[in-house]
Design brief:
Elements lengths: L2 H7 L13 H12 L24
Length: 58
């Protein structure tokens, strides 16, 4: 697949809300149900073994 075809099939959207409204939780569930990740992470549990994928920047 060419880079043009790959870019054409992608969609970008934003989830905007006030703090602590559940944006990361919603994002994690969307990623999980779409098959991008296998387990939805957690934001509040500091000692949780699985943190939110969408809260990390590389």
């Amino acid at each position: 697949m060419s880079i043009h075809q790959e870019a054409a099939r992608r969609r970008t959207f934003a989830i905007i809300s006030h703090p602590d409204a559940g944006k990361t939780t919603l994002t994690e569930k969307l990623l999980m149900y779409a098959g991008a990740i296998h387990i939805a992470g957690s934001v509040k549990a500091r000692k949780a073994s699985r943190h939110a994928t969408s809260d990390w920047m590389e």
